[in-house]
Specification:
Layout (H helix, E strand, L loop, with lengths): L50 H26 L6 H16 L9 H22 L5 H24 L5 H27 L8 H18 L2 H10 L3
Helix pairs in contact: 1-2, 2-3, 3-4, 4-5, 5-6
Bound molecules: zinc ion (ZN).
Zinc ion binds next to loops.
């Protein structure tokens, strides 16, 4: 037997050429046998999705509901009247809940803020239509606050891999404190009493959040919690 690279004569059973170190492959050995291909012959077809017919059905249903409400109002009341609420609510449900599912990859960082923005628009319509004055001092800031906190949570669970326990602690504390802000907006808009209910969520959320933050300062506890919570 000779080396395939330099032609040196090899001793029987040699694993490599003594001159050029080229590994010896024995044509009679197991290695020489062509391995059966482990991959399929054809490119696998993508799994058939059944969600498109369902989505189309739900879209048609929403369209039918909004159109029938509009036709009813126009023929019986001779005005858009309450069908405006119905149509906008259908549009909101469609864009916030159904529209993202038309895409293979749903990017929550795009769809979550869009959903909250649309909710804001819907509330503005109701406020203007009913002649209310609660949009700027209550509905807008509260919806934005909820949108911000939800987007922050999405960001945290998608990208915040490092020191996640600490970030969750901070987020919980902020969610707790935001309840006080919501009560403040209620107070200045509807003249409700301040500190009537907000201290309960503030205390419970902040307490859990602060415990998590505190645990981050003790390495043993942090490791234990991260393991227990799969972080
Ligand atoms: Zn050789």
């Amino acid at each position: 037997m000779y080396c395939v690279k330099c032609g040196v004569r090899l001793t029987d059973g040699a694993a490599a050429c003594p001159l050029c170190r080229t590994p010896v492959r024995d044509p009679d050995g197991a290695e020489a046998a062509p391995a059966a291909p482990t991959y399929p012959e054809r490119y696998p077809a993508p799994p058939k999705t059944r969600r498109y017919p369902i989505l189309a059905f739900l879209t048609a249903l929403l369209l039918a509901v909004s159109l029938s409400a509009m036709i009813y109002c126009l023929t019986n009341l001779h005005a858009v009247s309450w069908s405006g609420y119905v149509m906008l609510a259908c549009a909101l449900v469609y864009f916030a809940l159904l529209f993202p599912f038309w895409f293979e990859k749903r990017e929550p960082l795009i769809f979550v803020p869009i959903g909250f923005g649309l909710t804001c628009g819907y509330l503005l319509y109701i406020c203007l239509y009913t002649g209310g004055s609660w949009f700027l001092s209550f509905a807008f800031p509260v919806t934005m606050l909820a949108g911000l906190l939800t987007t922050a949570s999405v960001l945290l669970f998608r990208f915040g891999k490092r020191r996640r326990l600490l970030k969750i602690g901070v987020l919980l504390t902020v969610i707790g404190l935001s309840n006080m802000l919501i009560e403040f907006f209620l107070c200045i808009t509807f003249d409700t009493r301040m500190f009537a209910w907000s201290l309960y969520p503030v205390c419970s959320f902040s307490l859990v959040g602060l415990v998590l933050i505190l645990c981050c300062t003790i390495p043993g506890w942090r490791a234990y919690l991260e393991k227990k919570l799969f972080l």
